Amino acid sequence: MSPDVLLPTAPIVRPDKDRFLNEENPFEAMMSRFDQAADLLDLEPGIYKVLRHPEKQIITSIPVMLDNGDVEVFKGIRVLYNTSRGPAKGGIRFDMNVTLDEVTALAAWMTWKCAVVNIPFGGAKGGVVCDPLKMSVGELERLTRRYTASIIQTLGPDSDVPAPDVNTNERVMAWIMDTYSMHMRHTVTAVVTGKPIEMGGSQGRREATGRGCMIVTKQALAHLGMPVKGTTVAVQGFGNVGSVAAQLLAREGCKIVAISDRTGGVYNAKGIDVDAAIAHVAKHRTLEGFKAGDAITNEQLLVQEVDVLLPGALENVITTKNAAQIRAKVICEGANGPTTAAADSILDDKGIFVIPDILANAGGVTVSYFEWVQDRGGYFWTEKRVNESLTEIMEQSFDAVLSLAKQHKVNMRTAAYMLSISRVATVHRLRGIYA
Ligand code: NAD
């Protein structure tokens, strides 16, 4: 059918974008930014409707035999938001707070994120409602394999390619790859990214998201005329994203003055030895007991007087309740959705330069794309090549978003949404509606 069907037919009734029914509902947060960008792009009603709906949502029950012989049933979710530009791409998280709304919002963010950095993927996300810290390795493996089998109809290098997210890692990706390969009767390395290097993972993938945060933070500082050396940084979350970002920013000459994880945080005006913190977490799993300064709470970390704040844990930590107290000059959103939509305008009014999540943390999916390319071509790139290609893509994407922000006199978040939505919308116009 011709793309003309996507042209205006009737006026669209849009939700009032100044009314936040539930500030902390991530799907509403995503949608209100989407609406704002769609308005500025004057998106035609047909495409607007298509892009407001996830393509596919799978909810599945996952029975698992626990170590003590009991059977527990967990809830598993996989959402494919949009695959117009390529296979669905997006991480899998294991967390007690996983909900369908959250996973759908994260899947939409993946769609926009892949489009911001212009890699040929659509967006997906998955999650299992569980507390992995309370589960044994054997229980986690059984949970992962059964979850994989439950969603196997969507998985595949050409259709849906998971990756690590909160509380999942290389080992979990190895189990998914093995389970999928057993069902296919041959080894399929490209079905997941973020795998161990020995089985088709990419050099530099583990550090990629944190490295991307470092790259765009340096660009933001350059844009604002601020030096990198001596720049003070507070990092919330000390997992894959936060710890690597802190380490790489420290290597660039920044002073990391505050770090935190789920157990609380630490502040030291003289700077924190990030390598020592990483060694502590490697040994004890959390920052608890890491005495490198004054103990602070996660709430206190967010409002410290620093040059750069890097929220790198979970969503909804910068809200209308604390945005006015934030004293950072730059916020680099390492986590997905750390700022609620209602808090955006407060940060704007304070003149804080926000590098939005869909740009700031896109380094991970960019190197996932390199991993997928290597697996499909049977190549192994050097770490130097991976990091150089990542730097090029992150710098180009930052520049593209910044120039759109200047052109339309909007903030970086709105510009990033405009860029990505326009790219996805273009593909929908070209493909038309199959009937
Ligand atoms: P992770 O599991 O490796 O680390 C999460 C960290 O956050 C841990 O240090 C944990 O203790 C901390 N944390 C958990 N709850 C917290 C709380 N209530 N307050 C403060 N800290 C808390 O996860 P990750 O892979 O580093 O992901 C972190 C964020 O970055 C998530 O929003 C994820 O979606 C996003 N992200 C991750 C990647 C990636 O490649 N890993 C890519 C893009 C975005």
Write out key terms for the chains shown.
Rossmann fold; 435 residues; five-stranded mixed sheet; seven-stranded mixed sheet; alpha/beta; binds nicotinamide-adenine-dinucleotide
Spatial strand arrangement across the major sheet: 9-8-7-6-10-11-12
Termini separation: 7 Å
Number of strands: 12
CATH superfamily of the domain at 208-360: NAD(P)-binding Rossmann-like Domain
Calculate the mean pLDDT score and round it: 94
Shape: globular
CATH architecture type of the domain at 208-360: 3-Layer(aba) Sandwich
Secondary-structure blueprint of this entry?
Layout: H1 26-41, H2 45-51, E1 56-65, E2 71-82, E3 88-94, H3 100-116, E4 122-129, H4 137-150, E5 160-164, H5 170-184, H6 205-224, E6 232-236, H7 240-251, E7 255-261, E8 264-267, H8 274-284, E9 294-296, H9 298-302, E10 308-311, E11 330-332, H10 341-349, E12 353-355, H11 357-360, H12 363-377, H13 383-408, H14 412-431
Parallel strand pairs: 3-4, 3-5, 6-7, 6-10, 10-11, 11-12
Antiparallel strand pairs: 1-2, 2-4, 7-8, 8-9
Nicotinamide-adenine-dinucleotide binds at residues 164-167, 209, 236-242, 260-262, 286, 298, 312-314, 334-336, 361, 364.
Can you characterise this structure?
Helix 1 (26-41) packs across helix 14 (412-431), helix 3 (100-116) crosses helix 14 and helix 6 packs across helix 12 (363-377). The strands form two sheets. Strands 9-8-7-6-10-11-12 form a seven-stranded mixed β-sheet. It contains 14 helices and twelve strands. It is globular. Among the domains are: 54-191, Leucine Dehydrogenase, chain A, domain 1 (Rossmann fold, 3-Layer(aba) Sandwich), CATH 3.40.50.10860; 208-360, NAD(P)-binding Rossmann-like Domain (Rossmann fold, 3-Layer(aba) Sandwich), CATH 3.40.50. The chain is an alpha/beta fold. It has helices at residues 26-41, 45-51, 100-116, 137-150, 170-184, 205-224, 240-251, 274-284, 298-302, 341-349, 357-360, 363-377, 383-408, 412-431; strands spanning 56-65, 71-82, 88-94, 122-129, 160-164, 232-236, 255-261, 264-267, 294-296, 308-311, 330-332, 353-355. The structure holds nicotinamide-adenine-dinucleotide (NAD). Nicotinamide-adenine-dinucleotide is lined by residues 164-167, 209, 236-242, 260-262, 286, 298, 312-314, 334-336, 361, 364.
